[in-house]
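[Discussion] Sanity-checking designs against the backbone

I'm trying to build intuition for which residues belong where. Below is a structure token string of 269 positions. I'd appreciate it if someone posts a full sequence so I can compare it with mine line by line.
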């Protein structure tokens, strides 16, 4: 797809190579060396914005928050050096879609910008989609939210995207790699447990509001299937053989970035 991006960065070498890759892909790229007012970003009709917060100085956090809140359809990617886990977590919670650490390959930057743009475009399409009914739950893509009666599930944007994908493919077994590609936007790295972690979080929230229903079923060694059923019913194909069960016991993943302390300052690289 044709993509329009702007890059806020003073690293001329990196931007030059990035511009060549973008041109080869048929994209339109604009370089800026300082903050661009959100109203000007609207006029540029961008799909995504790549930012090095170091060029924004002390206003970096405020600028990222302002852009993400005022332009919800704009993909926002940070590419900077010397960032901490706490800073990356803070950026993602402010509305940044992705975070890369320099030095990084321009091809990776292009792939991540494309993935963010694709997710945003899909999000706009979902915004116009009709609600989905599932068990006791109603999934509302126009609000990026799901409800049980009048009570809303406390979902993050990524958790909603996962739930909506599974619900759209109701009854179908989706492999973990498929889920990651369609929700995160790029190929899953070997050993990545993000899908399992997010499914576990999503199940816990669903069980909290709708304990009498089971929504997400595990197919051991394969992936997951969304198929609302009254709690207590377990399909035969989901029960692994005893020896398979021993092999497929999931180990608790290492602490996620969300468990790290979040600091309130950003130190430009």
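Best answer:
Here's mine. Compare freely.
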């Amino acid at each position: 797809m044709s993509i329009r991006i702007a890059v806020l960065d003073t690293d001329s070498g990196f931007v030059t190579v990035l511009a060549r890759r973008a041109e080869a892909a048929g994209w339109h790229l604009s370089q800026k060396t300082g903050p661009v007012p959100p109203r000007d970003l609207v006029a540029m009709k961008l799909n995504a914005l790549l930012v090095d917060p170091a060029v924004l100085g002390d206003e970096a956090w405020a600028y990222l928050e302002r852009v993400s809140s005022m332009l919800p359809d704009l993909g926002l990617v940070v590419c900077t050096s010397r960032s901490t886990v706490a800073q990356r977590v803070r950026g993602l919670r402010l509305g940044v879609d992705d975070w890369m650490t320099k030095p990084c390959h321009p091809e990776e930057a292009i792939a991540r910008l494309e993935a963010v743009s694709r997710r945003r475009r899909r999000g706009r399409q979902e915004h116009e989609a009709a609600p989905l009914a599932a068990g006791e739950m109603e999934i509302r893509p126009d609000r990026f939210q799901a409800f049980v009666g009048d009570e809303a599930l406390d979902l993050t944007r990524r958790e909603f995207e996962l739930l909506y994908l599974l619900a759209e493919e109701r009854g179908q077994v989706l492999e973990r790699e498929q889920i990651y590609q369609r929700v995160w936007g790029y190929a899953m790295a070997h050993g990545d447990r993000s899908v399992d972690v997010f499914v576990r979080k999503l199940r816990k929230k669903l069980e909290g509001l709708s304990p009498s229903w089971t929504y997400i079923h595990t197919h051991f060694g394969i992936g997951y299937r969304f198929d609302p059923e009254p709690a207590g019913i377990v399909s035969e194909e989901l029960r692994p053989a005893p020896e398979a069960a021993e092999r497929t016991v999931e180990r608790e993943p290492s602490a996620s970035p969300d468990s790290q302390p979040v600091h309130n300052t950003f130190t430009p690289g």
